Amino acid sequence: MSPPCSTRRDFLKTLGLSAAAVAATPAVLSAGESEPEDTLAVDPQPRYELSPYLYMQFMEPLGNTDSSVEAAWDFTAERWRDDVVDVTARLGPPLLRWGGLLAAYYRWKEAVGPRDRRRPMLNLCWGGVETNQIGTAEFVEFCRRVGANPLMCVNFESEGRPYFAQTPDGDVRSAGPDEAAEWVAYCNDPDNALRREHGVEKPHPIRLWQIGNETSYDGDGFDCETAARKTAEFAQAMHKADPDIELIGWGDSGWGPRMMEIAGEHLQYLAFHHMFDPGGEGSPLYGTEYRKDPARTWDHLMRAAGVHDRRIRSVRERTDKYPVPLAMTECHFALQGRNRCEVLSSWAAGVAYARMLNVHQRHGDKLKIATAADFCGTRWQVNAVMIPVPGGESFMMPVALVMCLYRHHTGKEAIAVSRAPEGLDVVASRTADRVFLHVVNTNRQRDVRAGLTVAGRAIHAGRVFEISGDPEYEVIDAHPAGIHQTEKPLPADAAWTFPAASVSAVELETTET
């Protein structure tokens, strides 16, 4: 299967073919000239730096519910499946997180060293038994092969939840600051004796660590005061093992201010999660209702961006006075359905996800780590990558296609969109003289034409990387064949027609006038 999204290297190869044509009529406004209604205009003044970690993914053994990690591992050959590695490398997540609810009962020492000596464990949340054949070394190897940085989520004394702290037969699953610090040393200390005993001479350099997972949820674990105090204890122990690591503390459910007051000096990020349902009462997004009225389904999916924006704003309002960035280390739709959110296999959902990624960029001054899906699995529609079992080629779901497109065509600094035609959801960024536009046509059946302008700069060349398709198309077969990406040169008049229900990344080469 050919790669679903182009790279900047491909863009550079083709740039010379279109540069002369577009340069003939540079698209730049003269001072005082009014903009027509169909103008898509940007102000190239940098506003804030964008983090590459806005496109992270996270990996968690999900037991009986969705064979995510187990399915990605070839137990016969004792290595990662090549097709999973290949599709993930194309997706290009800059950061991969190990953990989730699993962290509340995960004892890392059971999953290191010779595989024939590793200890299986009960998956207390997701069911089944984890063999621990995939542990620290294997996860770091996967990150290295796909070009991602690893992020570890440590066992935070089972987050104070007794049902995770011990199995019914008395096996203790809770772990404290010392065990977390030992994990840091195992990974990062060049002279760590245990890692060397396991035959691994070089460190597994891991700089990002999250303390706990969802400590404030459900109300059956630590309270805020206890969690903040224990976070400080964990942070001090872990920083003692390696002063250079960066730590993420839990700040959701209004805990951010108190967490910062007690443990803030030790933290580099505050985490929150967002699993959400934008539908409400009578929503067509549940089960298979979405197939009955495509227009109504589209309208409900387009609401997701507003729900998501309000959620991030609410977290910001509580934490903006503290100089610490936010890390949304889990995020996805949470809808009813046998395989969790069947509608998310549709291209209509892909367009909705693109709007959510635009929301992330708009909050990029404060939001520095974010995701928009679970990572991989065999059945949940919230996954970015689906793994056919027992064989077949892994493939990207609509959310992954959009994340891949944006990941490979985003600038380093956010810039403002000063004007956009009705129906286009647009964010912009730049790297030096190159300007990037992420354009979502929120109209289900209407194309939108726009003339592109960059204030005070001439557009000399451009390319449009576009994904479009029938909004009702669903990725049911083992490949997204009905969703097409194209790559085309921007014409000489710097105007473009954005198809209905499309997601585009536009790259513009500009010079100052």
Task: Report a brief summary of the structure.
By secondary structure, the chain is of the alpha/beta class. The protein contains 13 helices and 24 strands.
List the helices and strands and how they pair.
Elements: H1 8-23, E1 39-49, E2 57-59, H2 68-72, E3 73-74, E4 79-80, H3 82-91, E5 95-98, E6 121-122, E7 129-130, H4 136-146, E8 149-154, H5 162-165, H6 177-188, H7 193-197, E9 208-211, H8 224-241, E10 246-250, H9 256-263, E11 269-276, H10 294-302, H11 304-319, E12 326-333, H12 347-362, E13 367-370, E14 374-377, E15 383-386, E16 395-396, H13 398-407, E17 413-419, E18 424-431, E19 434-441, E20 448-454, E21 457-468, E22 484-489, E23 495-498, E24 502-512
Helix pairs in contact: 6-8, 8-9, 10-12, 11-12, 12-13
Write a concise keyword list for the protein shown above:
alpha/beta; 513 residues; 2 domains; Immunoglobulin-like; 8-stranded parallel sheet; single chain; TIM Barrel
CATH-assigned homologous superfamily of the largest domain:
Glycosidases
Across the major sheet, the strand order is 22-21-24-19-18-17-1-20-23
Beta-strand segment tally: 24
Low-confidence parts, pLDDT < 50 over ≥5 residues? 6-36
The pLDDT mean sits at: 91
Total number of helices:
13
Q: Strand-residue fraction?
A: 25-35%
Structural class: alpha/beta
The first-level CATH class name of the largest domain:
Alpha Beta
Shape: globular
Major β-sheet, in short?
Answer: 9 strands, mixed
Fraction of residues in helix? 25-40%
Distance between the termini: 43 Å
Rg over CA atoms, rounded to whole Å, is: 23 Å
What fold name stands as the CATH topology of the largest domain? TIM Barrel
- CATH-scheme architecture of the largest domain: Alpha-Beta Barrel
Number of domains in the coordinates? Answer: 2
